[in-house]
C-alpha cells in the first residue's frame, strides 16, 4: 500500500518531498495504531468505561457490597431486601405462588397488549377479529392461547397463594391489612377473567355474561328483580345491571364496557392494589417465615385495651 | 361406564384447569400439611422438655450456630425466582401450543347453549343457584365470602402458628378454612364442571350426557311437606325452621369452639364483637351444605317462603 502511494507520489511530484510525506504518513498511522491498541486495552475492562458506569451506577463485582447494591440500586429489584433469612429461600415454605402470580400478571399484560393490536371492541367485528387473529396473524393462535391459559393459571396460583398464606398463619399480626388487600386482589383477578371472557363475543362469553349479569338484576334493593327492588323504583332501565351493561340487554355497550374494564380500568386498579400489597410486605417485616415456633405455654395474656 | 364422555369432560381445553386442580390441590395440601406435621412433632418434643425449649432454635430446618442467619438476595433468592419464571414460561408455552382456547359460534341472543356454564372459577357460584335464589347465590353469598375472608385476621385470636406451618396449634382455623375452601368452593367447581350436564342435571362420572334424559323429580317447599297451603302459616313454619337452624348452628358452633382446653383458652381471648362476627359468618357458611342436603336428598326447594324473598 505504502509502496503504491510512494510510486504515485514520486510520479506526480518531487521524489524527495514525496519520501518525507510518506514517512510522516507512516509514522502517523503507526502512532494512531498504537493509540488504538492502547484504547482497546480499556475495553477489556468494560466496567471502567463511562458508558458502563452511566448505566450501572454501582460496581458489579463479587463483593458483598456489590451484591447488596445490585438489589438495592435496581429499580426492578429493589422491592427485595438486600438479605433475607436463610430458611426463607426454601421453596417448600412459600411455594413461590405470590411471585409467580405477579409474573403471570406481567405475561398477561404483555400478551394482552399485543392482542389489542388486532381487536376492535365492536359487535360487528369482534368475533371476526378473533378468527383473523387465529388463522391469519403469524403466531396469533399461540398469542391468544397464551393469554387465555395464563389467565386460568393466574386464578389457580392466586388461590394457591391464599391457601399457603393461610396455612402459615401469615395473615396474623402485623399482616392483617395485607391479607385484606390480597382478598381484594383475588376479586380483581376474577373480575379481570370475567370481563375478558366476554370480549370474544362468542356463545360461551355471551351466555356467561348473561348469567352473571342476570344475577346482578337480583341484587337486593339495587336490582329490578331482587328483594325490595321495586320498592326503590328499580326497573330494567335504571338498576345496577343497567349500569354494568350500559343498557338493558347484553349488546354492543356491554362489549365496550367489558373492554374498558378489562384493558384499562381494572388493570389500573389492580396495579394500585399490588403496589400497596408489595409495600406492606416489606413494611410488615418481609416474608413471614419460617418463623421460630411458639409454644402454647408461651402465649402472652391479652393486653386489656 | 362411558369413558369417552369422561374423557371429553376432562380434556375439553376449558376444563383442563379443573383437571389440573384435581392434581394440584391435593399435592399442595399434602405439601403444606407434611410440614405442619413435622413442625408439630418438634413442638411436642419441646413441650415435653422445657430445657430443650430454652436452647433450641425452634425450627425444623437445618441449623448450625456458626451459619449466618441471613443470605444475600442476589444470588440466592433471585436465582430461584428466575428459575420459577422460566418454568412457568415453559409450562405456558407447552400448554398454549398443545391446547387451543375455545371459540364457539358467534354470539346469538336467540340461541341458548345447553348447558350454559359460567367460567370455571365462577361455577361454584352458579352451582349455588340450585340451592338459593339469584339474589342470595349471586349477590349476598359472594359478598359475604369476600367480607368473611377479609375479616379472618381480625377474629383470629390465636397467636400461635404466625409464620410457620402447624396443624395441632391451629386445628379450628385449618379445619374451617379447608371446609370453606376445599370442601365447599373447590368441590362446587368440580361439581359444576364435571357433574352438571345438559339442563344442569346431575350426571355421575361415566354417565353419558343425554340431552333427552327425563328425570321425574318434583321439588316441594318445606311447608308443603306438612300439607300447609295457607300463606300466613307457611310464613310462620318457614320462619320457625330458619330460626331453628340458626339457633342449632350457633349452639353447634359454640360447642365446637369450646371443645378442647386449648380452644377454650382462645375463646376466652375473643371479644364479643369478634365472637359475633365469627358466628355470623360460620352460620351462613354452614347454611350452604345444609341447603344442599335438603335439596339433593329431600327435594326441598324453599325452606322459608315470604312475600318478599324466598330462602
Topology:
The complex is a heterodimer of chains A (305) and B (311).
Chain A: H1 2-12, H2 15-43, H3 50-55, H4 64-72, E1 83-85, H5 91-94, H6 97-116, H7 126-135, H8 140-167, H9 176-198, H10 203-216, H11 240-245, H12 252-283
Helix pairs in contact in A: 1-2, 6-8, 7-8, 8-9, 9-10, 9-12
Chain B: H1 3-11, H2 16-48, H3 50-55, E1 70-72, H4 73-98, H5 123-128, H6 134-155, H7 171-195, H8 222-225, H9 231-257, H10 261-269, H11 272-298
Protein described:
The complex is a heterodimer of chains A (305) and B (311). Chain A has 305 residues and is mainly alpha-helical. Helices cover 63% and strands 1% of the residues of chain A. Chain A has a domain of 195 residues: Cytochrome Bc1 Complex, Chain C (Up-down Bundle). Chain A is flat and about 110 Å long. By secondary structure, chain B is mostly helical. Chain B is built from eleven helices and one strand. The longest helix of chain B is centred in the N-terminal third of the chain and has 33 residues. The chains are: A mainly alpha (305), B mainly alpha (311). Chains A and B meet through helix 4, strand 1, helix 5, helix 6 and helix 7 of A and helix 2, strand 1, helix 4, helix 6 and helix 7 of B. Strand 1 of chain A pairs antiparallel with strand 1 of chain B, so a sheet runs across the interface.
Amino acid at each position: 500500500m505504502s509502496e503504491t502511494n510512494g510510486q504515485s507520489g514520486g510520479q506526480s511530484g518531487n521524489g524527495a518531498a514525496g519520501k518525507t510525506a510518506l514517512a510522516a504518513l507512516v509514522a502517523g498511522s503507526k502512532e494512531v495504531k498504537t493509540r488504538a491498541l492502547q484504547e482497546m486495552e480499556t475495553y477489556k475492562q468494560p466496567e471502567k468505561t463511562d458508558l458502563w458506569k452511566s448505566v450501572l451506577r454501582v460496581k458489579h463485582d463479587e463483593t458483598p457490597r456489590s451484591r447488596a447494591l445490585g438489589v438495592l440500586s435496581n429499580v426492578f429489584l429493589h422491592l427485595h431486601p438486600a438479605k433475607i433469612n436463610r430458611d426463607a429461600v426454601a421453596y417448600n415454605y412459600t411455594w413461590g405462588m405470590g411471585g409467580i402470580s405477579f409474573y403471570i400478571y406481567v405475561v398477561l399484560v404483555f400478551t394482552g397488549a399485543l392482542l389489542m393490536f388486532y381487536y376492535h371492541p365492536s359487535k360487528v367485528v369482534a368475533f371476526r377479529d378473533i378468527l383473523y387473529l387465529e388463522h391469519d396473524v403469524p403466531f396469533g393462535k399461540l398469542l391468544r392461547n397464551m393469554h387465555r391459559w395464563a389467565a386460568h393459571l393466574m386464578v389457580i396460583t392466586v388461590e394457591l397463594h391464599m391457601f399457603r398464606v393461610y396455612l402459615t398463619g401469615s395473615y396474623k399480626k402485623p399482616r392483617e391489612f395485607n391479607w385484606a388487600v390480597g382478598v381484594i386482589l383475588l376479586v380483581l383477578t376474577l373480575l379481570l377473567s370475567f370481563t375478558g371472557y366476554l370480549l370474544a363475543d362468542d356463545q360461551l362469553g355471551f351466555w356467561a355474561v348473561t348469567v352473571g349479569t342476570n344475577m346482578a338484576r337480583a341484587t337486593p334493593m339495587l336490582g329490578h328483580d331482587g328483594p325490595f327492588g321495586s320498592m326503590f323504583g328499580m326497573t330494567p332501565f335504571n338498576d345496577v345491571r343497567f349500569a354494568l351493561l350500559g343498557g338493558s340487554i347484553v349488546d354492543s355497550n356491554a362489549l365496550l364496557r367489558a373492554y374498558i374494564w378489562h384493558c384499562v380500568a381494572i388493570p389500573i386498579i389492580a396495579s394500585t392494589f399490588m403496589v400497596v400489597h408489595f409495600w406492606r410486605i416489606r413494611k410488615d417485616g418481609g416474608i413471614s417465615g419460617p418463623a421460630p415456633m411458639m409454644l402454647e405455654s408461651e402465649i402472652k395474656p391479652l393486653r386489656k385495651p | 361406564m362411558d369413558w369417552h364422555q369422561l374423557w371429553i369432560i376432562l380434556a375439553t381445553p376449558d376444563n383442563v384447569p379443573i383437571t389440573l386442580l384435581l392434581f394440584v390441590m391435593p399435592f399442595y395440601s399434602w405439601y403444606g400439611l407434611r410440614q405442619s406435621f413435622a413442625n408439630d412433632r418438634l413442638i411436642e418434643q419441646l413441650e415435653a422438655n422445657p430445657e430443650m425449649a430454652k436452647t433450641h432454635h425452634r425450627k425444623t430446618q437445618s441449623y448450625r450456630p456458626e451459619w449466618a442467619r441471613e443470605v444475600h438476595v442476589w444470588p440466592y433468592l433471585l436465582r430461584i425466582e428466575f428459575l420459577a419464571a422460566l418454568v412457568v414460561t415453559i409450562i405456558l408455552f407447552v400448554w398454549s401450543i398443545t391446547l387451543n382456547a375455545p371459540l364457539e359460534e358467534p354470539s346469538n341472543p336467540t340461541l341458548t347453549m345447553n348447558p350454559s356454564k359460567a367460567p370455571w372459577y365462577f361455577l361454584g357460584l352458579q352451582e349455588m343457584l340450585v340451592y338459593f335464589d339469584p339474589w342470595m347465590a349471586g349477590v349476598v353469598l359472594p359478598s359475604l365470602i369476600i367480607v368473611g375472608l377479609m375479616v379472618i385476621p381480625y377474629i383470629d385470636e390465636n397467636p400461635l402458628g404466625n409464620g410457620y406451618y402447624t396443624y395441632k396449634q391451629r386445628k379450628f382455623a385449618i379445619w374451617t378454612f379447608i371446609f370453606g375452601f376445599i370442601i365447599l368452593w373447590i368441590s362446587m367447581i368440580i361439581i359444576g364442571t364435571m357433574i352438571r350436564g345438559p339442563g344442569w342435571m346431575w350426571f355421575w362420572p361415566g354417565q353419558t350426557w343425554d340431552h333427552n334424559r327425563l328425570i321425574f323429580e318434583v321439588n316441594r317447599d318445606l311447608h308443603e311437606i306438612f300439607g300447609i297451603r295457607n300463606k300466613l302459616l307457611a310464613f310462620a313454619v318457614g320462619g320457625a325452621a330458619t330460626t331453628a337452624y340458626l339457633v342449632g348452628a350457633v349452639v353447634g358452633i359454640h360447642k365446637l369452639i369450646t371443645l378442647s382446653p386449648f380452644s377454650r383458652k382462645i375463646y376466652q381471648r375473643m371479644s364479643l364483637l369478634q365472637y359475633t362476627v365469627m358466628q355470623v359468618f360460620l352460620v351462613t357458611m354452614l347454611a350452604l351444605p345444609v341447603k344442599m342436603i335438603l335439596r339433593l336428598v329431600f327435594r326441598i326447594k324453599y325452606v322459608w317462603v315470604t312475600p318478599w324473598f324466598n330462602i
